[in-house]
Each structure stands twice: as structure tokens, then as C-alpha cells.
Design goal:
Layout: E1 3-5, H1 19-28, E2 33-36, H2 45-54, E3 58-69, E4 72-79, H3 86-112, H4 119-126, H5 133-142, H6 149-157, E5 170-171, H7 172-181, E6 185-188, H8 191-194, H9 200-205, E7 210-215, H10 220-232, E8 236-240, E9 246-247, E10 250-251, E11 258-259, H11 261-276
Parallel strand pairs: 1-2, 2-3, 3-5, 6-7, 7-8
Antiparallel strand pairs: 1-11, 3-4, 4-6, 9-10
Helix pairs in contact: 1-2, 4-5, 5-6
The structure holds adenosine monophosphate, zinc ion (ZN) and fe (iii) ion (FE) (2 copies).
Length: 277
């Protein structure tokens, strides 16, 4: 049996592994195929592709787009993206700027609370175009302003906490179109986390191709529920660990193992899309 992990982050967003380290861990985990899905960027894909090619592992270039539908945040995974697509690159560049400005706003809110953090320190630690709350949390820990990442989120960064800043997002319908015009397949990420079941039919009508049934934070019964929903709406089934690096001492990559037949179905559906374009 061959297995894949189709939800992974690197240092190009808020993961802690380089693309090369990620591929090394994928190899150790015995994976036949991985997809890189950094938040709102495809910058890590060329390096991950090269590292995969060197060990004869299959690679799918992807991204996890932060989107919203009717005021609900929803993450849309794009697979088999053309990472040189100009429309895609222009759009995600805009949202990277949104992310960078949001870091400044979060730091300003922390400063108001008497926490002496500088935005530049966060940017230096993040060292990427697509920074997020985890980078603020890590900088707070590094500068000993909080004791742990959990404390940073609990006290300051979680939704509703004093340094939480909402993020402007593209509409989910727009994200699906953006992925399609870049030759990719659009898949709803971790539906069990966002409680977005009621919007699935609308997104299916808008052309969404699949849902991520298997995810680190989905229980067995949650995964089964989404397999039924996928079946009902004739959606592709995907899955991945959502690895951001080490978690409780071990890399999450490979802990969710998607049977390879789902990768074949995803690839076949993508060929159909290309033929129709
Ligand atoms: P952002 O995109 O900047 O809103 O940050 C979202 C990311 O922060 C998620 O992908 C998670 O990796 C991380 N995150 C969100 N909530 C928490 C939390 N309570 N504790 C630790 N990490 C979190
Ligand atoms: Zn993340
Ligand atoms: Fe996500
Ligand atoms: Fe993710």
C-alpha cells in the first residue's frame, strides 16, 4: 500500500521545517507522495519539488488559502497549482501584505497592553512573506515575554483576546475560481474544525472539488461523517496531518496516511479540468 500526506506547512508560512527537512521526514515516514500547502503562498514548492525528485517521491504543489463565506472563515486547499500562474501570484501577494500589516496591528495591540515587542523582531523570526499569529507567539516566547506558545494564544492571540486582529480574507467562491484558473483542484480543509457543514452545498455548487476527510484533529467518527458527505456530493476525498513541525516531540507528518487511490482520483479529476479549460 502507498500513502500520501496532503496537508503540510514549512518555514515559507508558519511551519518550522525547511522544505528539505519536510521531505526527509516524509521519507522516514514511508510516504509515497506529499503536497505542500503553506498558508497563502506557493514559494516553498520549487524547493520541495526538487527535494522530492531527489528521492523519487511524488510531489503536488499546493497552498492553503484563507477564505471566508458568509462571515465564516474557511481554508481552501489548492492542489496541482501552476506556481507561476500570474493571477494566482498577484492575488496571494495582496493577502501576504494583509498578513504583514496585521502583524503590525497585533504588535501595536500588545504594546498597548504593556508588552514591549517590536514588529521587526516578529518579521525577523518569521523570515517569510506570509507571517501569522504563530510567529508572534514564537517571538513572544523567544523574548521571554510569555512562558509558552499556548500562553501567547490564550492570553493574547486567540480570537476575542486583546491582541487578536481579524484578517481580511478573499471570498471562498473567489478562492475556488482562483485555484481553478491556476490549473488546480479546490478542497475544503479540515471541515471538522470550522463547523462549516452547512456551507458545503453552496461551495459544491460553486465548483469545489473535494473535502479533507482525514485530518489530525478529526476523530474517526468525524472522518466517517465527511466521507459520507463527500459521497453524497460526489466530492474528492483528501487528507493530511497539517504538520507545522514538531508537535509534542515528534513531527506530525505521516501521522495521517491517505491511501494513494485518493491521490490518483485527485490527479484524474485535475486532468479532466485541464481538458475542459
Ligand atoms: P493566522 O493565520 O495568523 O490566523 O494563524 C493561524 C495559525 O495559528 C493556525 O494555522 C495554527 O497553526 C495556529 N494556531 C491557531 N490557534 C492556535 C492556538 N490556540 N494555539 C496554537 N496555535 C494556534
Ligand atoms: Zn498554520
Ligand atoms: Fe487551516
Ligand atoms: Fe494548515
Amino acid at each position: 500500500m502507498k500513502f500520501a500526506d496532503l496537508h503540510l506547512h514549512t518555514q515559507f508560512s508558519d511551519g518550522t521545517f525547511t522544505p528539505e527537512e519536510l521531505v526527509l521526514h516524509a521519507q522516514k515516514g514511508g510516504l509515497a507522495c506529499i503536497a505542500l500547502t503553506d498558508h497563502d503562498t506557493v514559494e516553498g514548492c520549487p524547493r520541495a519539488a526538487a527535494a522530492c525528485a531527489a528521492v523519487s517521491m511524488e510531489f503536488i504543489p499546493g497552498a492553503e488559502l484563507t477564505a471566508e463565506y458568509q462571515d465564516t472563515e474557511v481554508h481552501i486547499l489548492g492542489y496541482f497549482l501552476d506556481t507561476h500562474n500570474e493571477v494566482l501570484l498577484a492575488k496571494i501577494a495582496k493577502f501576504q501584505t494583509v498578513r504583514q500589516n496585521r502583524i503590525r496591528e497585533m504588535v501595536a495591540a500588545l504594546n498597548k497592553l504593556g508588552i514591549s515587542l517590536k514588529a521587526e523582531a516578529v518579521f525577523e523570526l518569521a523570515n517569510c512573506q506570509s507571517p501569522g499569529r504563530p510567529h508572534v507567539a514564537r517571538t513572544l516566547v523567544k523574548e521571554k515575554l510569555v512562558g509558552s506558545l499556548d500562553e501567547a494564544f490564550e492570553r493574547f492571540l486567540k480570537k476575542g483576546r486583546p491582541a487578536w486582529v481579524p484578517k481580511a480574507k478573499m471570498s471562498a467562491l473567489e478562492s475556488i475560481q482562483l485555484i481553478h484558473q491556476a490549473g488546480g483542484m479546490a478542497v475544503m480543509a479540515h471541515p471538522g474544525l470550522n463547523r462549516t457543514d452547512e456551507i458545503i452545498p453552496d461551495l459544491v455548487a460553486a465548483g469545489m472539488d473535494g473535502i479533507e476527510c482525514f485530518h489530525t484533529k478529526h476523530s474517526t467518527s468525524t472522518s466517517e461523517r465527511y466521507l459520507e458527505i463527500a459521497d453524497k456530493h460526489h466530492l474528492l476525498v483528501t487528507g493530511g496531518s497539517d504538520c507545522h513541525g514538531y508537535s509534542k516531540g515528534r513531527p506530525l507528518i505521516g501521522t495521517v496516511r491517505l491511501p494513494y487511490e485518493h491521490v490518483q482520483q485527485l490527479a484524474a479529476a485535475r486532468q479532466k479540468l485541464l481538458a475542459a479549460q
